TrEMBL record:
<dbReference type="GO" id="GO:0005886">
    <property type="term" value="C:plasma membrane"/>
</dbReference>
<keyword id="KW-0812">Transmembrane</keyword>
<feature type="transmembrane region" description="Helical">
    <location>
        <begin position="190"/>
        <end position="209"/>
    </location>
</feature>
<feature type="transmembrane region" description="Helical">
    <location>
        <begin position="133"/>
        <end position="159"/>
    </location>
</feature>
<protein>
    <submittedName>
        <fullName>Putative deoxyribose-specific ABC transporter</fullName>
    </submittedName>
</protein>
<keyword id="KW-1133">Transmembrane helix</keyword>
<feature type="transmembrane region" description="Helical">
    <location>
        <begin position="42"/>
        <end position="59"/>
    </location>
</feature>
<dbReference type="Pfam" id="PF02653">
    <property type="entry name" value="BPD_transp_2"/>
</dbReference>
<feature type="transmembrane region" description="Helical">
    <location>
        <begin position="65"/>
        <end position="84"/>
    </location>
</feature>
<dbReference type="InterPro" id="IPR001851">
    <property type="entry name" value="ABC_transp_permease"/>
</dbReference>
<keyword id="KW-0472">Membrane</keyword>
<dbReference type="GO" id="GO:0022857">
    <property type="term" value="F:transmembrane transporter activity"/>
</dbReference>
<feature type="transmembrane region" description="Helical">
    <location>
        <begin position="91"/>
        <end position="113"/>
    </location>
</feature>
<feature type="transmembrane region" description="Helical">
    <location>
        <begin position="272"/>
        <end position="290"/>
    </location>
</feature>
<feature type="transmembrane region" description="Helical">
    <location>
        <begin position="221"/>
        <end position="238"/>
    </location>
</feature>
<feature type="transmembrane region" description="Helical">
    <location>
        <begin position="6"/>
        <end position="30"/>
    </location>
</feature>
<feature type="transmembrane region" description="Helical">
    <location>
        <begin position="245"/>
        <end position="266"/>
    </location>
</feature>
Amino acid sequence: MDMELLQQILVAAIKTGTPLLLVALGELICEKSGVLNLGQEGMMLMGAMAGFAGAYFTGNLALGLLLAVIAGMLMAGIFGLLSLNLNTNQVATGLALTIFGTGLSAFLGASLVGSTINGFKAISIPLLSDIPMLGALLFQHDILVYGSFALVAITWWVVNKTRAGLTLRAVGENPYSANALGIKVIKVRYIAVLFGGAMAGLAGAYMSLSYTPMWMENMTAGRGWIALSLVVFASWRVGYLMVGAYLFGAASILHLVMQGIGFTISPNLLAMMPYVATIVVMVMISANPIRQKLAAPMSLAKPFDARRH
């Protein structure tokens, strides 16, 4: 394999892994607060549809991006109302949100199926983009990929180095102790859930405004589910999450690479690679339940009722 082909594969892995990274970042923060939201796929689709519709009808990509984030947050707000205020089962509520988002995005976007726009273009950073190998990998992307780099750094700093991050982790580990210390548990969890929705909407917008600037039903193709397993794969650590997203991104394009270099395996089998990789990773993680329990927030998916204390 020559260096030029390797470079193209790595660049494609970053682009393909970006929506996974964005939605997984949001889910990680959500789970750090003790809330498990399985509605990522539905929120991504609503973000993709809202973002595309906004850009298509106004010609303004920035407005489309804003609408995608708002759509994701509205969906997350529905989840928060049901699971945080009404204490519904988080798993069932998340699944219902995915079904709802999938159907609603298809209904609202029915007239736009197959439509295209001029999406976000790559921006080469002067001087840095000329660095051999590294320039193409890091400094020749569109604004959403650059934004994902910044969001990773900001999220890591907030979670690990700030009072807000300490509060978030305290709520996720033991909400009743946090409540006794005067922390508003429901408020913290709402903020985390809404942030998760915003990131899912942003990931959806990346799909419809940058990666493939068009609208089609179910265009996220299960990426929301992959992102959920990615959070577990990363052991709820931001740094590992970034590495994992690009590894899964590479798995997503592996079928194209193998076809390009002459492998005669069925393209349908090769296209299964990212989903097979997801299953393999989950099986490997499940083989060590003690390690998983130590890494996971202790109150994950457990409802909080302030009236108990």
